[in-house]
Amino acid sequence: MSKITTELLLERAVPRSTRLRKIETLNLSKLQLKTGDLDPRLFSRLRHLQKLDLSDNLLDKFPNSLTLPDLRVLNCNNNKLEDVTALKQFPLLEELTYENNVYLTLNDDYKVMFLLQNLRLLNGKDITKLANHVRRVNSRKLTSKVTAHWEKFFRDQLPEKHTAEQVKSIKKKFLKSVQTNVVYGPSSLSEFTRWRVKMIAEELLACSLGLDLNTDPEPEEKMDDSEEESTESPREAAEDVDQVGDFSSYINNVTVTPSKRKRNNSKPGSGNKRSKAQANNEEEAEDVSAEPLHFLQCHSKGNSREDFKTQLWSCVFEPLLDCGARKDAIVSSSRTVATCGGESVCLIDCETGTVLKKYKVATEEFFSVAWTTLTMVISDSRKKSHNILAAAGRRGIVKLIHVAADFCYGEIKAHKKPIATLCFSPTRETHLFTASYDKRIALWDIGIPDCDYNFKASQLLTLEVLSIPLRIALVPTCPDRYLLAGCEDGCFAWSIKLDKEQKSRPFEAIFQFPDKDGGVTTSHRVDGLAFLNDDVIVSKCSKPGCIYLWSWSRSFDTKGKGCQRTISAVILAELEWSSTDLSYLTLSTCPAKDYVFCGDEKGSVWMYNLSNYTTAWGSAKGKRSDRRIPPTQILKWPELRENGEQLSEVLVNNVVSDPTFTYLVVLTSVNITAIWKKS
Fold first, then answer.
1. Contact, 115 vs 93, CB < 8 A?
2. Three state DSSP letters for 288-325
3. Smallest Cα–Cα separation from 655: which of 579, 597, 613, 584?
4. Contact yes or no for 127/115 (Cβ under 8 A)
5. How far, in Å, CA of 606 to CA of 636, rounded?
6. Which end of the chain is more exposed for a tag (fewer CB within 10 A), N or C?
7. pTM over 0.85
8. Chain mean pLDDT for the chain
9. Hey, CA dihedral for 430, 393, 480, 548, is it positive or negative?
């Protein structure tokens, strides 16, 4: 039996009423209501209802036919809503609040702004200006893009005399193609953009071309207006340290001189000052692989524009969701990156340079971030995938952040000393490795939070380290069996199989490398470590000016017995790099493109395209390259001036590309995040 009756509605009316049709204000909060309790037949009698409070209930969606023709104000705070499109049935709605519905995102904000033409206030904020953009300003751009896509690729595919099957086929192909190729605005709004693009595409087919689209069993909504992709958000920055803000700073009065050159045929400083537009229109004599897009100062202490001292340490691109209602499968690669340094963690859209979210802890200095995707149980025992970001640093505490909900839901007190780096298992989404200055690497099961964010974390394993671990990597071919770590005093490997009873384990192997005197050594600082593919490891620095590439399978005999073995790394090649003796300038790889990246002490990024070498290295008889491999290109640090003074002594602490090498994110020692885009 439904919880809502005529008597309840009359009693909860404000003021109490004797007739349903006379009720103008109704408070149905805190009744544990579910979607099935909202009976359309009963609600259809509330013809003059103007204000409805449904806060603090268990609603996951709205029925499509509540029939409240005069509703002006709706409060849905503290529910479990997953979709907002059913709100279009309230065309006169002027004020809407749905805060603390953790499954709603910025995409839903934009959807309601488009669907509700009279909406003025969203979650207590005046969205009139932004809503006008969403509804009108950008419709010409998206409509133009959709129309051009039809004209160029599909119009000629449809014969003059076409059958219903041909119409159905062309519609299916066009809708899929247009949503794939018409991309606009930040990736944080990609779901909304595709939603609007599909809508516009269906209108184009149905109205402009006169095609009958009633070939799908599911009716599709058609709208006339379009949206504006804006970096503004109706949600303001939260003050609480466990929530997200949108504070960001661009470097003021910047002069950018991108000097990009091939290592062997260009001289330093040969780049000419020019605008980005000129770079796009002029043909360069040199081979330019990337252009600088943005220089952001978004990790400043106290949001100070004068902060050029905060060190930035780690960045990692957000993974695409594999399943769920918010699947982003059309996008080939994420362009949202998480960065950390100082007291904050930021999420940045690489294309627009927008700081989408910011998380701060005043007493922390963050050193590392890592992503995982958890399948979480939501209402009615249904499951959804959500990206979770782990962040850790000087305090030895791991913060767990549900990014879509802008909520830090928990923390793990993992170590008593700083955590240098984090790493999630690629095969077990709840397994997190933490490497600490306490000379331990711990494996944690972070658990999966329930709908109230209750979770239980447990420690599964401790790996004993002889010196501070700086970088860790799981072996791609057996990520549940072996872990490598680059440490202050060597490179080590451990068995991490959980079927063993031993919960605290010493290292299984230590690798020795050539030293600068021509001998071999196991005692050297390894501050860069990553896999280029399933077998090739890239590490630095056993000696200045050199990065080694070596084979895991040829170096480590998995059939060998005994612990703490000394093993000679089978070197495949050496990469030519800076001769600096500065430490902690780490490297990264882009396995899909066979690239290695490493920054230096002058703000430059050394890039190595190794696609011509990997096949030979993979053969059983592959020989070591006789000479050091020079960088394919070096991206020189641009000339940046703040208040007329040039920034100097820029160290590149880290540089990371997205999986398809579209964007390159450079983290520096001067509180600047530089974003480059491959030409």
1. no
2. CCEEEEEEECCCCHHHCCCCCCCCEEEEEECCCCCCCC
3. 597
4. no
5. 9
6. N
7. no
8. 82
9. positive
Cis peptide preceding 630, ω within 30 of 0: no
pLDDT digits (tens, 9 = 90+) for 345-394: 999 999 889 998 999 998 899 999 999 999 987 766 778 889 999 999 99
The Cα–Cα gap between 656 and 287 comes to 21
Residue 241 and residue 408: Cα distance in Å, rounded? 9
Give me the helices (H) in 608-674, please.
611-618
Cα(166)–Cα(163) distance, integer angstroms: 5
Residue 385 in tokens: 């995938």
| Token pair for 646 | 């040039």
Please compute Rg for the chain using Cα positions: 28
CA angle centred on 317, ends 311 and 321, rounded to 5°: 150
Beta carbons of 155 and 174 less than 8 angstroms apart: no
d(CA 319, CA 385): 11
Q: Which CATH class is domain 6-158+170-208?
A: alpha beta
Show the CA angle centred on residue 169, arms to residues 165 and 173, nearest 5°: 170
Alpha-carbon torsion, ordered 643, 649, 650, 654, to 10 deg: -160
Contact in structure between 114 and 196 (CB atoms under 8 Å): yes
Residue 662: the pLDDT is 92
Output the pLDDT for position 643: 64
Whether 429 and 472 have beta carbons less than 8 Å apart is answered as no
Query: In 3-state terms, what secondary structure has residue 465?
Result: coil
Measured in degrees and rounded to the nearest 5, phi and psi for residue 640 equal -110, 130
* Spatial contact of 414 and 423, defined as CB atoms under 8 Å apart: no
pLDDT, tens digit (0-9, with 9 covering 90-100), for 189-217 = 788 888 989 998 888 888 655 554 443 43
Query: For residue 112, what is the enclosing H or E element?
Result: helix 106-115
The phi, psi pair for 169, rounded to 5°, reads -65, -45
- Read off the tokens for 557: 């005999």
Question: What whole-number distance in Å separates Cα of residue 485 and Cα of residue 529?
Answer: 8
Angle of helix 190-203 relative to helix 139-153, nearest 10 degrees? Answer: 60
Give the C-alpha separation, 353 to 296, whole Å: 8
Spell out the domain ranges in the chain.
6-158+170-208, 290-319+335-678
Long-range contact set of residues 497-503: C-beta below 8 Å, sequence gap at least 24: 498/460, 498/461, 503/460, 503/461, 503/462
Residue 9: half-sphere exposure toward Cβ, Cα within 13 Å: 21
Q: Per-residue confidence at 453, pLDDT binned at 50, 70, 90? A: confident
Candidates 174, 165, 218; CA nearest to 200 is: 174
Using alpha carbons, select from 14, 26, 21, 104 the residue that is nearest to residue 59: 104
What confidence tier does 570 reach under pLDDT thresholds 50, 70, 90? Answer: very high
**CA atoms within 13 Å, Cβ hemisphere of 158:** 23
* The dihedral formed by the CA atoms of 112, 114, 120 and 122, expressed in degrees to the nearest 10: 30
In contact, 542 and 515? CB cutoff 8 Å:
yes
The identity of residue 499, as a single letter, is D
Q: CA angle 526-462-656, nearest 5°?
A: 40
| CATH domain 290-319+335-678 topology | Methylamine Dehydrogenase; Chain H (2.130.10)
572 three-state secondary structure: strand
Taken in order 303, 308, 313, 316, the sign of the CA dihedral is: positive
Identify the CA nearest to 104 among candidates 318, 397, 384, 349: 384
